[in-house]
Specification:
Number of helices: 15
Distance between the termini: 22 Å
Helix content: 40-55%
Largest sheet: 6 strands, mixed
Strand order of the largest sheet: 3-4-5-2-1-6
Shape: flat
Strand content: 5-15%
Structural class: alpha/beta
Amino acid sequence: MTAHGARLLPGDDDTIVAAATAPGRGAVALIRMSGARAITIARALGAFGGACGAPPVARLQHLCTLHHPDGTTLDQALVTVFPAPRSYTGEDVVELATHGGLVSPVIVMAACVAAGAREALPGEFTRRAVLNGRMDLLQAEAVADLIDARTRAMQQQALQQLDGGLSRRLLALRDEVIHLEALLAYDIDFPEEDDGPIAPARIATAAQALHTALEALLRTAPQGAMVRDGVLVVIAGPPNAGKSSLFNALLGQSRAIVTPIPGTTRDAIEALLDRTPLPLRLVDTAGLRETDDEVERLGIEVSGRYLAQAQVVLACGASAADVRHTVHVVSQSTRATVISVRTKCDCVPSHDEQLPHDTIMVSAERGDGMDVLLESIDRAAQLGAPVHDDLVITRERHRAGLAIARDELDAFLSAWSIGALPAPVAAVHLFTAREAIAELIGTVDTEDVLDRVFRDFCIGK
């Protein structure tokens, strides 16, 4: 068993090795070993001057020449030792900083394997950190999110979760469940005590407060999705309204094909734009019109699905009539914030046009109005933005676990309010709620959860 109560799997006592840097041309590559034999294997490669070399000094980097067990010179490297338990994994860890490129890291890692290590599986270093109590599952997920972050918002949210903010919130919620269980246990075990039984209203009030806290955290799931994936901003309008040109101008690069031929865009094109406070997931869609072209019709159906999911819609048109028509059409297909945009304002006279209120005039060709449009999108996006330092849940696993806990509290409150179940039976709902929260943090034996969390990690982390 481990610090978190999870069973060690076959091979968990092996010494593992992996390249912690991406392959390819580079100045330095990092090879990482972890396990009981990490220092012994490094010594066998000459990392500390051979069998008679001085004992390694913790966290002090030094230069050495590495050799294969057969005596072949491998590379010059900088070696750092992190003794257990004060290492990333909680085990002895050795890091070998070799020259970069395609050859040196590979032959050094192969030599480590020849000396007794085994190649690490994806996420195995972080999995061992969890098993050895160096971090919990939520923090491990934050490590993966930090590596995969494509925007500053996701990076900042991952750092906050890695710091343990969400873990502390969930531990506090679990403690509240335990407190509620304790009240019930006292009522069950000591009903005749001088203080008398626990008032049912007191138990109901505590359960309701816990239910409210769980519900509040669950309501952050859409905000977490926006942090991870970006606010969905759909660019809609008739064919040849300048949607693709606007899409390219907002991105600052050419991603969508632009031609004067109506119906050029047959499918939705997505791109992520890093903005503060939230990234924007821009989608260029097919022109909205009736058509007999089967491929174009399918593209328009895709546009409709994006409109239904959007948080912000840019209703575009090259004339006042087009803008008004687009606003009317998209308003029937979405509950998103609709921003009317008059495109090509450099080509068509704008005087005497009866445009919808607050229409933004833009020219993708000259860049006119782009800053105003982006600021308007940002304001609309902030309606769902988490307040600075607020905790949000960012994964489906979090949402599902909290939903189970909330539903169990619902069942408990419903039964408790009418006295439908004896206290020992009603307490089962509290136990299930507590286990659901504990599973999120990783404080119970959850091998299947560990497998799900770490299967998508990169190798070497």
